[in-house]
Amino acid sequence: MLLHHYRFVPDETLLDTSAFREALAASRTPIVVFKEALRELQTRLDARFRAGSDIRDLVHGRAWCLDQLLAIAWERYDWPDDGIALLAVGGYGRGELHPHSDIDLLLLLEHDDDTPYREGLTGFITFLWDIGLEIGHSVRSLTDCEREAHADLTVITNLLESRTLAGPEQLRETMRGRLSNEAMWPSDAFFEAKWQEQIARHYRFNNSEYHLEPNIKSSPGGLRDIQMIGWVAKRHFGELRYEDVVAQGFMNDAELRILSQGQAFLWQVRYALHMLNGRAEDRLLFDHQRAIAELFGYRDTPERLAIEQFMKRYYRHVTALAGLNDMLLQHFDEVILRAHETPDVTPLNARFEVLGGYIQVRHANVFRHRPGALLELFLLMAQHPEIEGVRAETIRLIRDHRHLIDESFRDDLRHQSLFMELLRSGGNIPRQLRRMNRYGILGKYLPEFGQAVGLMQHDLFHLYTVDAHTLRLLKFVQRFREPDGHEDFPVAATLVHQLPKLELLWIAGLYHDIGKGRGGDHSELGAIDATAFCERHGLSPRDTRLVAWLVEHHLLMSKTAQKRDISDPDVIHEFALAMRDEVHLDYLYVLTVADITATNPSLWNGWRAALLRQLHTETKRALRRGLDHAIDREEWARESRDEARSLLGTVGIDIPRADALWASFGDDYFLQYAPSEIVWQTQGILEHQPSELPLILANAPTEDMAEGGTKVFIHTRSVNDLFAATAAAMEQLGLSIHDARIATSSNDWTLNTFIVLDDDGEPIRDPQRLEEIRHHLVEELDDPADYPRIVTRHTSRQLKHFKVPTRVMIEQDEANARTIVELIAPDRPGLLARVGRIFMEQDIALSAAKIATLGERVEDVFFITDKAGEPLTDPDRQAQLRERLCDTLDV
């Protein structure tokens, strides 16, 4: 079944069959003649593809040319009678062949005994292999076809699409009769089986069209979804022309246009993938994305990369196709297969009713007479959570009336009130906003959101397009509100119920990334758009300012937690000043957690949770103390020391011994650690004395030391290369360092603490694994002259694709008399160890480090001084450090 008006016209300029027959007759090596014809055919097709020919002409043209060549090859063999035929099946049966698609053939026998044809079959198949065709073939009798099709969904699906290439057409007609839906696989059973098959296929791709490297055939919205529509329609209606499909009411002209355009685009991409790879390939990998974007004429602009422009077009097509697939299959089920059923009807108002659990319009002119009903429908669904979805015919009407949402619609107070009522309804708002996006309503009502639909960022950090990420963020906020949210997000789940107006968070979430892809600071652009939305929808000036502030500062909390030393009282005071009050702090915390979890599932772990929790707690304490009362560093250190001293007795530590030890530690030590950690480290040091071996303490996270990672404490003689050696040893263990606090006592013993996660991103809890870590570190750090080998592991294919230039930013932390080095570099094995070596070579002392891996890059922050404990203020020395880091890490 063709899903468009297109009809292929045989093209002798692709393959001159008369000339081919003459060449074949004149040659003693038919294999060479066939091979040359196939090579010339592909060369012509590729040239036409690069020149911009209609992709349908190329895909159907290649199939037509193969039809001719296979028929001619068939003639070379003596078949004893008309009891055998050569059929094209599957994709080839549809008349579709990409450069390296399988050529699916059925050698159909009238009778079960294949003895008379065995020699010819062997010779024919061998010949096809010899000339280089990629064939998939089966030899079946009519009885075989009937039996296997009855038992196997894949077989019946494959045989639905068949054409006779050589031999009697009557054999195929007989087969079709035996496989009719009266004989087997009636429409409802076939539909249900194929629907379950599609559900399973979509599940393998997380039910999402949005993948960084999508499979254009099998992902939701891919070619399989288009074929699914054709299979279901063909099984029910039989062989149909375009006009018949519309006449049967299965789809309309606009829907066929979407399918046809989407199929043509995906065919272009698939053809390019095959051509560029020289083999069958359906995965749109990063390298392919770049090459195809260039092939399709996209060029980088200041706002967006060519690859991002191309992928936006891809995502928009597959999103439209996935939505249409859902609607058409639901329509087929409701109106065609279940037409005889009479489910209960529950009126909702004059415009809507619920039929069998699904909402529908009460008459076809509802949206034309009352355009606001395009928003009202979603409000009703939020108010009635028992409604399972929207009837297919109503979805079709929604699509057909989207054009009514124009500027005058958006300026109508009634429509603005409906949208705000939806946001304030208290129902599952994200679910309704996802539906609005699926049906194309959200981007029409909020054009600034519509511009972001399908917009991707070309990196490994942002796994989703802007619109998909935004809706995921809102989904996580909804999860915080539900009972099971408290287990994974205890702080956010508590705070979300304390926010004065939840609708302000919905709005901030909608707008937080909406400024991306336009050039400039997306946070500032989003704040401008959010302000306009709030003013247009009648929010108070105070609420408007809060929403705009949240959008503009939505990255502030995560950046502060991950890049600043939040054990520093001055950092907490500065952040508290930015927050203004606890309301701003709580809104921003919930938004930040939802943003991180919605960006990339691997980002949210116990370590990041602990950082944000600590920042939130300390900032709330500072706000309650009063912003005009800056936190006193000495007082904070004294309080921490006194509380730790009060805990010493619980673990049997003599206070005078502890005081003698602490005398060499300095105030910064007591600022960095909680009292329980101080006691843990003190106990370890005192019990380890007088041994000269390195002391390594490693423990799993506990409630009183809730760091979200495994804490490794190292107490040993201070040597220049200790950080580099430690980083290299931890790399050997497969550990990732997320935080480092480097301190040295006045008698030159280290007080270094590392927060690490195992290679699965989780804290280490297994006692045997903890002991392995302790043993390995003692062994590697015992002899400073024996520097541990830096691991050289394989870099993943995806990482190799991204060329992230190393950037080094240097600034001064005057309050703490140290220099801050921010490093953005490609993520590579052994990176921290190499950085440590450079610090050692440059006579630099490290006091702390904040480590963050964001997809294909790292964003690490190091707090350093020179060996005398002074900040690096000399411009020449800064330039030397910057150059050394870039030269080493860009190799």
Automatic annotation (TrEMBL):
Source organism: Chromohalobacter marismortui
Similarity field: Belongs to the GlnD family.
Span of domain ACT: 711-793, 820-891
Annotated control of activity: Uridylyltransferase (UTase) activity is inhibited by glutamine, while glutamine activates uridylyl-removing (UR) activity.
Name of this chain's protein: Bifunctional uridylyltransferase/uridylyl-removing enzyme
Free-text comment about domains: Has four distinct domains: an N-terminal nucleotidyltransferase (NT) domain responsible for UTase activity, a central HD domain that encodes UR activity, and two C-terminal ACT domains that seem to have a role in glutamine sensing.
Superkingdom: Bacteria
PROSITE patterns assigned: ACT, HD
Highest classification ranks of the organism: Bacteria, Pseudomonadati, Pseudomonadota, Gammaproteobacteria, Oceanospirillales
